[in-house]
Design brief:
The complex is a heterodimer of chains A (250) and B (266). Chain A has 250 residues and is an alpha/beta fold. Chain A has one domain: 3-Layer(aba) Sandwich (Rossmann fold). Helices cover 37% and strands 26% of the residues of chain A. Chain A contains ten helices and ten strands. In chain A, the strands form two sheets. Chain A has a six-stranded mixed sheet, with helices on both faces. Chain A has a four-stranded antiparallel sheet with strand order 2-1-4-5, covered by helices on one side. With 266 residues, chain B is an all-alpha fold. Chain B folds into two domains: 45 residues; 218 residues, no CATH class. Chain B starts with 7 loop residues before the first helix and ends with a helix. The chains are: A alpha/beta (250), B mainly alpha (266). At the A-B interface, helix 2, strand 6 and helix 4 of A face helix 5 of B.
Chain lengths: 250, 266
């Protein structure tokens, strides 16, 4: 059963077309990773999935509901199904760690601060953090910030988690621990995930399927093994990280 | 041979640039008005973030008290000193109180307070929201099903409008006290005459006119500060531009609106 359906989505800014008819289906419980170079439209695609951007043409369907047809209220209801981990974590720097993690609960439930703090502590433990509840985001390392961002993403028991470059800016060991955490959380929570990344090691590790986005179109979709053995020259060049081939550096 | 300045290409370029700038200006005005409409819409609908509102009232209002007091005191004192110099030439020194109180209530109180608050709180709003924009914190709010205009803009807009009212009252009082101090204690004007002239020639409407201006200026500072911050693009440079833009546009609007409000409320 499809959880996310992206049908012929076009999106541009001014005269610059970023997405040029993207089609992608993510099944319930599946982990899909969209790979692609800088400027290929990955972030724009992710923002279309959660309704931060609206397609110029085409439709995004989440759990059977067409995002394009929803008003502000409907969109917010759909967004409660989502959790999103931002590239730089996007923690609210005026709030403590537990207030960040419990932000959604504070806004959308009648739970007391004590209950919210307790849920935050539980979610922080799930991402491997303890005794950080009262710290401010500025006191945390890059890896810890990502973990807190992930705890915030799962605090409302999201059905879909979106990851925007989850390993960017981290050292290889921390990056791999984040990959492990993503795999682990998926096993424990059974959520549908969509990640965008250009880190192939991460993509192979966390994905059921990988889709390559190039110049606003999906070039190829397949399992990590299928992508590894692809004959598509564009995908081949990207996954091997070669400067020689049809993709040219900016 | 035709000069470059007179060539059709040159004229086309000028017209194109002019057209682009005009279009850009009206697009920006339209965007501000849409933003204002959204802010008003969310101001009057639940949920209400009182904690954010009180926090902003402290940030914009209470923390601006020292700068507003200093400006008002200095202005009141200088006003008394300068008008004494002029009035003495035709023996009207006793009218210093009238000049100071009318100027402070109708004009200088709201305008100077507005300019000071725009420089301090308007800049701070733009920088804070601008940083939140470029670090994706505003997007994060949306993904957490929380309307960022409701959560971030409305408290700042309302706090700015309310606190400008009270800061202006404070500015008026401090300015008049400064004028009294210089007029009576330094220049030796009769205190009873000074106070009588201040009261006799002033009307309650003078104070209200000043306070209506204060409310409008407060709304402008909140709106422009938030608009510039909310629409920040790029990194640190973008935040810098948004902050400068917020102060410049707010100050310009305060000065322009001051004339129209003065003409309207005359």
């Amino acid at each position: 059963m499809a959880m996310i359906e992206i049908i012929n989505v076009h999106k541009g800014f001014g005269s610059h077309a970023v997405l040029r008819g993207v089609n992608l289906i993510v099944e319930k419980g599946e982990s899909m990773t969209v790979i692609g170079g800088s400027g290929s439209g990955k972030s724009v695609l992710l923002k279309n999935i959660i309704g931060l951007l609206t397609p110029d043409k085409g439709r995004v369907i989440i759990d059977g509901q067409v995002l394009n047809d929803l008003d502000e209220f409907g969109l917010n209801e759909i967004r409660k199904k989502f959790g999103m981990l931002f590239q730089m974590a996007a923690l609210f720097d005026s709030l403590t760690v537990w207030e960040n993690v419990g932000f959604g609960l504070k806004q959308h439930t009648k739970m007391s601060d004590k209950e919210i703090r307790s849920v935050a502590t539980e979610k922080l433990a799930l991402v491997g953090l303890k005794d950080v509840e009262d710290k401010m985001p500025s006191e945390l390392s890059g890896g810890m910030r990502k973990r807190v961002g992930l705890a915030r993403a799962i605090a409302m028991n999201a059905e879909i988690i979106l990851y925007d470059e989850p390993t960017t800016g981290l050292d290889p060991i921390t990056a791999d621990s984040i990959n492990d955490l993503i795999v682990d959380l998926r096993k424990k929570l059974g959520v549908t995930s969509v990640a965008i990344t250009h880190d192939m090691q991460s993509a192979y590790k966390i994905s059921d399927r990988i889709a390559m986005l190039y110049k606003g179109e999906i070039q190829e979709i397949g399992t990590p093994d299928q992508i590894r053995s692809t004959t598509n020259p564009i995908v081949r060049q990207f996954i091997t990280g070669s400067a020689v081939g049809p993709i040219t550096a900016d | 041979m035709e000069s470059a300045a007179g060539s059709p290409g040159f004229i086309n370029n000028i017209l194109e640039t002019l057209g682009r700038k005009t279009l850009g200006f009206f697009t920006e005005v339209g965007s501000v008005l849409i933003f204002f409409g959204q802010t008003l819409r969310w101001t009057f609908s639940s949920p209400f973030y009182f904690r954010n509102l009180f926090g902003q009232m402290e940030q914009i209002g209470v923390n601006s008290v020292p700068v507003v007091m200093t400006t008002a005191l200095s202005t009141g004192m200088v006003l008394a000193l300068q008008s004494y110099t002029g009035f003495k030439r035709f023996g009207a020194e006793t009218l210093i109180g009238t000049v100071v109180s009318l100027s402070m209530t109708r004009e200088l109180g709201p305008v100077l307070t507005g300019l000071m608050v725009a420089g301090r709180a308007g800049a701070s709003m733009a920088a804070e929201l601008g940083t939140m924009r470029v670090t994706e914190q505003i997007d994060a709010l949306s993904t957490l099903a929380t309307n960022p205009i409701k959560y971030l803009v409305v408290p700042r807009f309302v706090a700015s409008t309310i606190m400008m009212f009270f800061l202006t009252v404070l500015g008026m009082i401090i300015g008049i006290i400064g004028g009294y101090f210089v007029g009576v204690k330094v220049l030796g004007t009769n205190p009873v005459t000074y106070i009588n002239n201040s009261i006799d020639f002033a009307e309650v409407t003078d104070i209200w006119y000043g306070l209506i201006k204060a409310l409008v200026f407060g709304a402008v500072i909140g709106l422009i500060g938030c608009y510039k911050g909310f629409n920040t693009e790029g990194g640190a440079e973008g935040v810098g531009k948004a902050t400068t833009g917020a102060v410049v546009v707010s100050c310009m609007l305060i000065l322009i609106l001051d004339y129209f409000l003065s003409a309207l409320l005359w």
